[in-house]
Amino acid sequence: MTVRVRRVYEPPEPEDGTRVLVDRLWPRGLAKDAARVDEWPKAVTPSTELRRWYHAGEGSYEEFGGRYEAELAAGAAAEELDRLRASARERTVTLLTASKAPDRSHAAVLARLLGD
């Protein structure tokens, strides 16, 4: 199982496998054809409320991760998470984010959960 996390602004690489955008909003200034995104499952993106809370600096990354995991544990998010997990068992999945710090973002939390 291989799950990678990369910035969506980086050029695609052959090792990326299935490229999955995990941001709720399309990245600014990036043409859709240049991004070469294979999937955009909005069900696994953090809610608008959670995203705003975290970007406002109101909590720690650890608290954000816990809240995000709780969002992913129910409904359509849980189903989509299971689907992505199954996909990652079959081929490389690269999670794409516009975050300037992908290792401290929702994409890192999602990558960890996909590896479980």
From TrEMBL:
InterPro entries: YeaO-like. It comes from the Bacteria. This is DUF488 family protein. It comes from Streptomyces broussonetiae.
